[in-house]
Amino acid sequence: MNVKKDWWKGFFDETYLITDARSVMDPDLTKREADLVEDFLRLNKSEKILDLCGGHGRHSIEFARRGYKDLTVLDYSDYLIKLGRRKAREIGADIRFICQDARDTKLKKDDYDTVFIMANSFGYSSIESDNIKLLKETHRVLKSGGKFLLDLADSDYIRENLKPVSWHEANEDIIVCRKRELKSDIIRAREIVVSKKKGLIRDERYCERLYARDKISRILKDIGFKNVAAKKEISLHKKKTDYGFLTSRMIVTAKKS
Q1: Diameter of the chain measured on Cα atoms
Q2: Gap between the Cα atoms of 218 and 193, Å rounded
Q3: Distance CA 27, CA 233 (A)
Q4: CB-based burial of residue 24 (10 Å sphere; 0-12 exposed, 13-18 middle, 19+ buried)?
Q5: Where are the alpha helices (H) located in 66-202, listed in sequence order?
């Protein structure tokens, strides 16, 4: 199955918010994910926080509701960034939204107390060096002693439970079918989205590189992170069904030395 190198540049749009609504548009799930970040990183409300690959900023908006003041959301999708700005304005939250490639953020060096990448928004490139470049950029923008959290798919769970074909009804009109294949550490998938009223909406391919605990820990340490720790088999959805990469998670934390 062939996948475009930078497939993600045009993938995250209004259709994505429908096909993945049960995760990315679920306020209760977002609250549980925010709880997880607070618990793992022991955040305080004075920290300068970067929500990297943050989409429409659902986690930062939740943190703003909780009283956090210095929040930045960076994502490549112009559609999601504009949506996030609008949603932040609706609640009166002063959140900085930036549309930029996370591998080269253009942000100041040593500037953030905390960076997190949530909901499996890492590993989109089949080229290992591209993914490592993103982690190096994370290290660059963190202050000395700054904290990092990476929310990944639990690779062992995926390997044992990957379904070659899955489908679900996103709403009364939209049906989502995904065909997946795993070769080495890379899952390649075809997503077909059909409207009962309008017919075919999307037929796209994407990929995800899986990271085992030992491998991601080694990469982070080689970059310069310390105190690297990982916890697996984390499930945050209430209903037990196939949520793809978000069904079972691995949370990795580290500090900049």
Answers
A1: 55
A2: 38
A3: 22
A4: buried
A5: 78-90, 128-141, 155-161
- pLDDT given for residue 206 in this prediction: 97
Q: Is 181 helix (H, G, I), strand (E, B) or coil?
A: strand
β-pairing verdict for 142-153 and 249-256 = antiparallel
Residue pair 256/224 in contact by the 8 Å Cβ criterion: yes
Burial of 222 (0-12, 13-18, 19+ CB in 10 A): exposed
DSSP state for residue 76 in the 8-state scheme: S
195-199's contacts with Cβ under 8 Å and 24+ in sequence apart are 196/172, 197/173
pTM across the whole model? 0.96
Q: In whole angstroms, what is the distance from residue 23 CA to residue 236 CA?
A: 10
Tokens 């930036």 found at:
98
Q: CA-CA distance, 101 to 98, in Å (whole number)?
A: 9
* CA angle, residues 153, 59, 175, in degrees to nearest 5: 60
> Residue 241 — pLDDT band, cuts 50, 70, 90?
confident
pLDDT in tens, 120-175: 999 999 999 999 999 999 999 999 999 999 999 999 999 999 999 999 999 999 99
- Note the residue count of the chain: 257
